Structures are given as C-alpha cells and as structure tokens.
Automatic annotation (TrEMBL):
Transmembrane segments: 20-44
This protein's encoding gene: pbpB
Domain PASTA per the UniProt entry, residue ranges: 663-722
SUPFAM superfamilies: beta-lactamase/transpeptidase-like, Penicillin binding protein dimerisation domain, Penicillin-binding protein 2x (pbp-2x), c-terminal domain
Chief subcellular location: membrane
Stated role: A transpeptidase that forms peptide cross-links between adjacent glycan strands in cell wall peptidoglycan (PG). Part of the divisome machinery that synthesizes the septal cross wall. Beta-lactams inactivate the PBPs by acylating an essential serine residue in the active site of these proteins.
Localization (cell): Cell membrane
Source organism superkingdom: Bacteria
Name the UniProt record assigns to this protein: Penicillin-binding protein 2B
InterPro entries tied to this protein: Beta-lactam/transpept, Beta-lactam/transpept-like, PASTA_dom, PBP_dimer, PBP_dimer_sf, PCN-bd_Tpept
GO biological process, one term: cell division
Single annotated GO MF: penicillin binding
Pfam families on file: PASTA, PBP_dimer, Transpeptidase
Record keywords, A-Z: Antibiotic resistance, Cell cycle, Cell division, Cell membrane, Cell shape, Cell wall biogenesis/degradation, Membrane, Peptidoglycan synthesis, Repeat, Transmembrane, Transmembrane helix
Amino acid sequence: MKQIKRKIKESNPFRNRKYIAIMLYIFCFILFFGVFSRFAWIMVTGEINGENLVSNVHKLYTRNNTLQAKRGTIYDSSGNPIAMDANSYKMIAVLTDEWSTPKRPIHVQEPKAVAEVLAKHLSMSEEDLLDRLTMDNSQVEFGSIGRNLTYEIVSAIEEDLKKEELTGITFEEKKSRLYPNGIFASHTIGLAQRENGEQESQSLKGVLGLEKEFDEILSGEDGWIEYQRDRFGYVIPNQEIEEVLPTDGNDIHLTLDRRMQIYLESIVEDVNEEHSPEVLTATLMHAKTGEILATTQRPTFNGTTKVGIDQTWQNYLTEYTFDPGSTMKVMTLAAAIEEGTFRPYDYYKSGKIQVGGGTVHDVKPEGWGYISYLEGLARSSNVAFVHQVQEMGFETWKQYLDSYGFGQKTGISLPNEYSGSNPYGGDLQRINTSFGQGISVTPVQMLRAFSSITNGGKMVEPHLVKEIIDKETGEEKVFEPEGTPTLISKKTADQTLEYLTETVYSDVGTARGYAVEGFEIAAKTGTAQMIGEDGRYLSGDSNYVYSVVGMGPVEDPELIFYVTVQQPELNGAGHGSHVVQKVFNPVMKRALEYYSSEETEMDFEEESEVMANVIQKNTQAVIDNFNTTGREISIIGSGDTIVQQHPIQNAELKESDRIMLMTNGAMTLPDLTGWSKSDVLKLSELTGIAVTFEGEGFVNSQTLPPQSFIESETKLTVTLSPNE
C-alpha cells in the first residue's frame, strides 16, 4: 500500500509542470539577459562583428569627394603652354532599373532613341550603339569611342538627351594632360598619365622627362569636400559642409625657344624620313648661359596622340652613350694648346703610327705625306692628336678629361641621366681617347665640355628650366647655374676657336660643307666606329655615328649646335656627314640670324610668310580669318577650339602648303581628293590613323567617306593616281 502511495506521489503531474515552468523562466531570463547585454554592448561600443555601425551609417549618408588639384603648366621661354591640364569625360550607360525610382529614373528606358542621339556625336554607328544599350548588364561603357570626350561633345549630348527627355547616359569627369604642339621635344617634356592599375584614380603622374623629374612640384596637393545626402542621393540642405581646398601645382618655365624648336623639329623630321637613322639627336644651346634653346631626337613620339611612344622611352640627350669620334679633338686641341704641345706649323708624317701594341691610322691610311699640325687638324688626322697626347703624357691628358666632366653626370633636370664611362685602361685605349674612341659620352656631356671653349675656359651647366612659379604666393624660383672652371685658360679657349675655323674654311678642311653664309663659325666633325655585341668595332659604310659641333659667331660665340646621326641610310648622300649637314646647315643659319640681330623677331618673321599660332583659338574665328586670305584649310574634328595645327607656328608657309587644323571635338576625316602622299602622311601623323597607299601620285579615292568619324585605331586606304 505504501509503495502504491509513493508511486502516485512521484508521478504527480502538477509537481512536474512546476519544475518545467521554473526551467522555462530561467531559460527566458538568460535569453533576455543575453539579448539585453548584446544590445547594451552595441549601444555602448557602436560595433558589431568588428564593424563600426556609426561609421557605416556615416558612409551610407555621407559623400566625400576629392577636389582635384590642377597640375602645373609647362611653358616655353616666351610663355606659350607646352603641357597643360585638360578635362576629359568617359561615357557610361546605366541599363538596370535597380537604382532608379518612379520619380527619378536613371537607366536607359528607350535604347533606340538614345542610340539615335549618340550616333550624331560619336564615331560609332547607330546599330553598334543599340547593341551596347541592349546588353544584359547593369551598365556598359563604349570603349575608346566613349573615352577622352571633350566638354563640348558632352554638353551637346546632354542637351540633345534633355530635349528628347531621354535618360540613362552619364559621364565621369577625369583629368588628362594636353600637349598642344604634338611632336615638340617630346622625350624631354615627357608624359603625365594615370598609372596602370589605377584607372579609377583622377591623379596624373609624371612617367617620362620633365613631367617625371618635377612630378611633385607639378602635382600640387588634392583637397576634399564632405557633405550629407538622403537615401535617394539628394544633398541635405542647410548642413555644415566640410571642405579643404586643393593646392594647385606650380608652373614651370623652360629655356626652350618655341620658334627654334618648331623649326628644328621640321628639319629633323624631313631628314629622318629620307635617311631613317637608328638614332638622331640635335641640340642647340646658348653658349654663354647653358640654356637649351631647342632639342629633339629620332625616334620620337607625338605628345597628343602618343603615336611612336612604343619605339623608345629613352631620352637620348641624357640616356644615350656613344663614342664621340673626332669631335673629341676639340677638347684634345684645347689641352694641347694649354700644355704647349700643339705647334701648328711644325711638321709630322701622317698616315699611321704604331702605338700601345696597336696601329692608329688616319682616314686616309697612306696619309698625305709630311704636313703641318694645323693642316692635320683641318684634315682631322688621328696621328696628329696621338702625338699631342704622347707629348703631354697620359696622366696629364686624364686630368683634362676629368676636368671636362667626362664620366660624370651633368645634373641636368632630367631623370635617368647616364654618366658615360672612361675606362682609360691600356696604352692603346688611352691613346684612342685623343680622337674620341674608347670613351663613352652622352650628348649633354659633350655640350657641357664644348661650353668651356666658348666661355674662356669655364664650363656652363646645360639646363632646361628657367624658373618655377608658385601659384599660391606668386614667388619665382629662378635657376642660375654656376660655371665650372677647367684646366684651360681664356687665351687657350680663344686660340682653340681660331684654329677650329681651319676645319671650315681651309681648302682641305673636313667641315667645309658646314660653312654658314654670312657668319664665321668654328666647327669639328666626327665619324666614330660602333662597337658590336662581341666588343669589336663594326664594319660597313653606315655603321658609324656621324656628328658635328658648331660654335658661332667665332668673334663672340652665342650658340653651340651639336648633331649626331647613327647608322643612317645614305640613299645617295655619299657620306654620313652629308646627312648631318642637312640638319646642321639650315638650323644653324636660322639660329645665327635670329640671335645675332637686334630686331630678331621682326627679321625672323619678315623673312617669309609664316604660319600663325592658332592653337587654343576658336575654330570658326580661325576659319573666317583664313577665308579672308584665300587660303584653303582642312578641319579635323567637330570641336570649337583648335588643339593642333600643321604647319606649326612660324613655319615657312608656301602657297602650295596644305593647312590642317585639329579641333578638340571627335576627329573627322577630310575629303582627301587631290591631296599629295606627303599631305596624307602629315594627316596620319596628326591623327594617329594608319594609312595604306595604292598607286602613286595624288589621291582620287578613299575607303572612308569625308566627314566620317575617325580615331587613332582607324585604318584608311587611299588610292593614288598621276596628276593629269
């Protein structure tokens, strides 16, 4: 009976429910306490799973935009812009409606109508545009056609879309760098662009030339602006906006003379097309100050279209080393005069000489018999200069080489400058340096050394930058390089100049072809053998670096002009020096006329009709102006501002010259009927398009119709026929 009562008591359902209820209460309390504690923790710390909720909400409703600093402008010596900032735009079509609201649609609703509008302004067919606008994507871009659009094109598109009440097209603004002169000391000026992998970045970075060397000075410092917006993206009114204004980059003024630079480019381009040298350099320097007045090279590139940039990234003024050849004899002559070993009217036997375990011979191995050392200079006799070094001694000659700065960087404001080399090893190599073999130099090193002859024994530092102007303060930082004394005296320098006239005006002088009408100059030519990969000198008629240095006027030198041409195709020129003459003679004559006249600007422009500067001028105004002169012009593009021109400013303008003007709008193809092959090639250079020619003569047909849109990737075939 007791057992039965115990079992009934143990199985009492009310007692079990009480225990269950108590457990539930405890569980609920724990759960509530846990949730409460979690919320309390979140409220106190403002974080969940390591994320700051306050920061996330701030980001959701806060817009923080970078205020882009304007990159400084690079000017020539007269204040004309060489490199400047410009705004460009990228077009994007929004195809999804997930970001739209009924009252504010931002996606493409009528693809066909939008394609019709865009086709009016872009070089893409309506069908191709419609294909893009109907893709199964959230948004779509338009390749190179939709990039680098000008403000004028963007404004025209937006206006037409607004008229038709069409939506879905948006534009991203970005900074770009404009080089309005095209080919204009391109490797020296350099490039500024967005780096690979940073396409979203608005900042431009200098990657070549002066743009790279002075990137920090040109770049400035970006600012920022921060404001609140609602969930629909609208700016909340009456809020306090935080803003830090950008600091624009500083402007740089160069020593380059625009007129001489343009003229040099045109002459060098003609020679390059005719003789296709592996390397060509030409630099004009003010002999008293070291200011680089004009400099160029081939191969080069167009700063605007970037055509040719893949040929080389080297600036040959500072990154090209070579054996200078007989132009080094200028420096040997000066050292010999200073040491008293050069006796101009003493005689020696020319031809060849055994020295240092090898043989040195003249350009004419059998020689000219017994001749004076002055005649040996005129004939550029190697044997004559071997005697000079032998007499002064190897150690003394080495001191002069060091004094001239060979093997040392000049410190010119360009990146990656080479120092060259002077191993000065065995006796034969030491002897060879007397006539410019066995020593490696850069063009700018040679210019520095030559300046000691025109400055009474004191070298001036070649330089490109005249001043830097701080946009914020207006403060000007002027560059005034100091001269460097050498071992030669003013008397020696003057005597060297006088003797160097023999090479130009003597009946046997090697520089007779470099005489400049109306001016007396000193000059020295050079023909240096090239070393192959096996370390041996190359053979063959063209495997040389041909060069010349000219200094004038002799009575008081103002200019030094140095030209090098490596491995040209002679094409009937007879000798490599004749190729060099095609660059040196016209440029040196123009420069001497320009800088020696008190009324230089008037003389320079009145010599013949010249092309005016129309860059950055209004397109219609330029057209109207040329119409009054009766000249026919060809417009390339649909914009309202001229950004490139051919012929370039101050180029001699003949009646037969075709004037081509490129605008800032999308490029358009002119009617080429009747154009010469050379004119079409100039068009190709301006625009970057690839042209294929069929036949000879003048254009009578073209594969793309006139006024069709073109871009740098466009390929064009033109048919030529004889002019009847």
